[in-house]
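New to this. Please check this record:
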Amino acid sequence: MPQVSWQPSASFANLRRRAQILARLRAHFAAGQVLEVETPQLCPTTVSDPHLNSLYVPAAGYLQTSPEYAMKRLLAAGSGSIYQVARVFRADEEGRWHNPEFTLLEWYRSGFSLDELIDDVAAVARLALGEVDCVRHRYRDLFRSHLDLDPLNCNTSELAAVARRHIDIAFDDADRDTWLELLMSHVIEPRLGNDALCFVVDYPPSQAALARLRVDAEGQQVAARFELYYRGVELANGYHELLDAGEQRRRFAADLREREALGLPAIPLDEKLLAALEHGLPDCSGVALGFDRLVMLAVGGDALDEVMAFPASHR
């Protein structure tokens, strides 16, 4: 008989640590009267973001990349603050820090500002990582200090030229946000959070997604969102949530136009989410945190395989 590899990739010590961290997180949310919820993993529609690849199940629907849309319907219906430990799915994501099926810890705090949510995310991260320091950097300041570039006001050709100086790129043409993302992920991100939880705030308006916009201290319009990095790993993405259904519909339409330009399949809009926004989403801030990555960092691991029983490589 052929040899078949059937054992888990993670040690039981790491799996026990994973369970302990999850228990602490649930206790944290229970103490804050945040309700645990469950929403469907398989839905008729999915995110329109051109940079996320959803898995489609024929005659059934899309496996969700995040429980965000359904959770916002609960918020609009009057749930109050909620959280979910969700299994989510993203196609074409497999590697050291990626798996096509993974665990996302997502929560929404009613009445929280973005600053209050950042404090809450730091508290959650410390339940796993211990008492680590916390710093904040503006997106614009990081580009200025690391690349001598103003990401909010430079033109696309300037971005492309800087990207080619720092990254081995196999294409010539891309949109503004693609160049920004390449510079962020390849040049800046690996330097973030080496000794502290690093929150990056005030992203370009074009990267607002489901966040509202605000004006910063320099009079520049920015997205009211943040990302959290620790030891060069992206851990979380948070928003001061957009409440305007009309604006959200316009952003979805822009995503669909970009998908068409890139030759990607169209995604049906989530009309139930838009109807929930029309009804009224309470003022809230929300965040999605990669639970597997958090555990990996907590145990001192180098890859998700060390904290997942059966990742894609062991299916």
About this structure: Residues 57 and 63 are 7 Å apart (CA to CA).
